[in-house]
Design a protein that fits this description.
Layout: H1 3-16, E1 24-31, E2 36-43, E3 55-58, E4 62-67, H2 72-83, H3 88-97, E5 108-113, E6 120-125, E7 134-138, E8 141-145, H4 152-163, H5 168-179, E9 197-203, E10 217-222, H6 232-241
Antiparallel strand pairs: 1-2, 1-8, 2-9, 3-4, 4-5, 5-6, 7-8, 9-10
Helix pairs in contact: 2-3, 4-5
Length: about 260
Amino acid sequence: MTLHSKRTFIFITLTLLSKASFATFSIVAVDPVTGEIGSAGATCIGAEDGAIVISDIVLGTGAIHTQSFYSPTNQNNARDRMEAGDTPQQIMDWLFINDVDNDSSDRQYIAVDLNNGSPRSAGFTGPACFTEFIDVSGPNYAIAGNILISESVVTDMETAFLNAQGSLSDRLMAALQAAKRVGADSRCASFDISSASAFIRVARPCDKNSDVGNLPLDLNVWISDGNNIFEPIDELQIQYDNLPPIESCVSDVIFVNGFE
């Protein structure tokens, strides 16, 4: 195989490799003090919507990821349940019973909400997900992954998130960096990278639009050229480090000499 044909093969493979499965390692988290809601993850799919397609932030409420054989219908249903006031665990239970294909065995879900400053989280992993698979959760975060090189991809993410200092976004980046290793998504092992696309997103209480590209922190990187294979999590880190800190929300009310 020539160098050109090898690069073409890599590009096609990273773009199409098990696209329907959306095997992913990802995290959702909230900061009950600032009211921020975060979402981050990566996958071995080299496409603009490779990893970020799973990210769904419900402003002022929480975040949900539906991954492993991703279904837009399941994602939309999960969002509807969160908007209706269901807890993360209730969302898991509802999705299990009401799967669009009547089979949740190969699905993986995580969710977290602010709950007026007392966050809740939950996760679900079906037994037919590709190994290795695992989900973990704590009061203000949930993390999951499937088709992993090992469960430590996710458990290392959890350790990094819990031990990192700084803002919610700093801790999300730390979690992604902790996951980074050759073959974190095991399909990418032969390319000597962890993944082929990665994202990080954070919403504030004052934000009005959580669609992709509209949040104060809304970064998405992916491999689009077989001649330029790189580590997406490191590129995400570079872009993150070059951004100014997220500005806190400010009140629209201006007081002059004590009067509104």
